[in-house]
Design a protein that fits this description.
Gyrase A, domain 2; three-stranded antiparallel β-sheet; 2 helices; 3 strands
Length: 71
């Protein structure tokens, strides 16, 4: 199974959680949800479309929109 993972690092846990909450809003709006792993100041997102058993344009679009949060 192909999966796309992106890791983001922040100053502290509060910044990590702020980012995760923003990701949740974007994911809900798109009705497409990444797996989220929170490790204090690090957040790992895993993108994968279960119905397609692969990484799809939905995943790439979601990852791109999430990256825009940090620019």
């Amino acid at each position: 199974m192909e999966r796309m993972r992106k890791e983001y690092q922040f100053k502290n846990f509060a910044q990590s959680m702020d980012f995760v909450n923003k990701v949740a809003g974007i994911a809900e709006a798109r009705d497409h949800h990444p797996d989220i792993l929170i490790q204090y100041n690090r957040v790992t997102l895993t993108f994968y479309t279960h119905t397609e058993n692969a990484v799809t344009d939905k995943d790439v679009g979601l990852a791109t929109e999430i990256d825009k949060l940090l620019s």
